[in-house]
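Continuing from yesterday's entry. The apo prediction looked reasonable, so today I'm repeating it with pyridoxal-5'-phosphate included to see how the binding region is handled. Same sequence as before; SMILES copied from the compound registry.
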Amino acid sequence: MIKINENYKKLQASYLFSDIAKRVAAFQQANPDKHIIRLGIGDVTRALPDACIKAFHAAIDEMANDATFHGYGPEQGYDFLRKAIAEGDFQSRGCNIEADEIFVSDGAKCDSGNFQEIFANDIRVAIPDPVYPVYVDTNVMAGRTGEAEAGRYTGLTYLEGTRENGFIPDLPSAPVDLIYLCFPNNPTGATATKEQLKQWVEYAKNNKALILFDAAYEAFVQDERLPRSIYEIEGADEVAVEFRSFSKNAGFTGTRCAYTVVPKACKAYTTSGEAVSIQDLWNRRHTTKFNSVSYPVQRAAEAVYSEEGRTQISELVGYYLNNAKFIRDQMEGLGYNCIGGENSPYIWIDAQGDSWDLFDMLLNKAGVVCTPGAGFGKCGEGYIRISAFNSFENVQDAMKRISGAL
Ligand SMILES: *Cc1c(COP(=O)(O)O)cnc(C)c1O
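Holo prediction written out below.
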């Protein structure tokens, strides 16, 4: 008899997106002529930068000739891309990360979900709340938790983001071994300072713990004092792995390319306390289960680091940030307290009551769709997330309607 992985039965079905879809459909049916503006999704809306498109086309032409055709590439990614990443994203910012510490992949979602696989099942895991659901669910699937009780799994340590701590969680009071952090944060848009990250790095060092740092939104950091990478903190290369993606900076959500930084200095331990290289473990896992990203996509990603690419990406990110600022200013003008939207495409808004009440009001009175914070965890209750991923015209229209409705 084929038996299931019983851990899958513990997973809490998220009704969030189906609930949203139902309410939106009901509204549309009642108001067939009303144009609904969606500011709820975490997907980009603008075309790939021209530099990427050119490189993409040229690489496809190479695939059309026997002489320049590419078959399987190195599982970790082509050297040209690993070098461009190490220099462009790290060495240029004073972080000592080498090309052979970069593992190219088809997504930060898969990497941040898969990474836990190389660790023991009885490690203690700390996960932020509110949170990008991938971190929690993959640990549930692996069997690191008990059942869910009132929306929280037993056996996990939740790092609470609250109004009081500005959605930058405090260090855990009981020891943990694996820590997930995401800055700039999805869903809250909160950003951590160097001092705050330094505390986490020190904590990890003192506890022989590991930080999994999701920096998918680093390109949105505008304030030069804020870190874009955890490796801007001294010694972080001993205790942190970083996830990056071309999805949000260069619009690769449908093109698929990302990477994970696994420094040589990162160690994990055997039961008897012997140190093992995390990079060796990840390399083994990655080369066994993954066969690299397509050649044209890696060439398109490489173009992100060209002069033309950089200019276009900063324009692209600037466009969404301009939307974000507009949304935040408008919502604050209407008397709502907001987090994010300054170094992040997300604006996290205190709903001054129930998340779903504000969601319904924005939908029914303004025809605008947002995301209720409760879908991201217990600490998300009482908040909504508005995303800046849309056209400026739609954002302006949405804000005009909201102002008129309130
Ligand atoms: C969008 C996003 C990613 C990127 O995922 P990809 O699989 O690379 O598209 C990673 N982490 C967070 C928190 C995100 O919101």
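Comparison notes:
- The two ends are 59 Å apart (CA to CA).
- The longest strand covers residues 240-245.
Will overlay with the apo model tomorrow.
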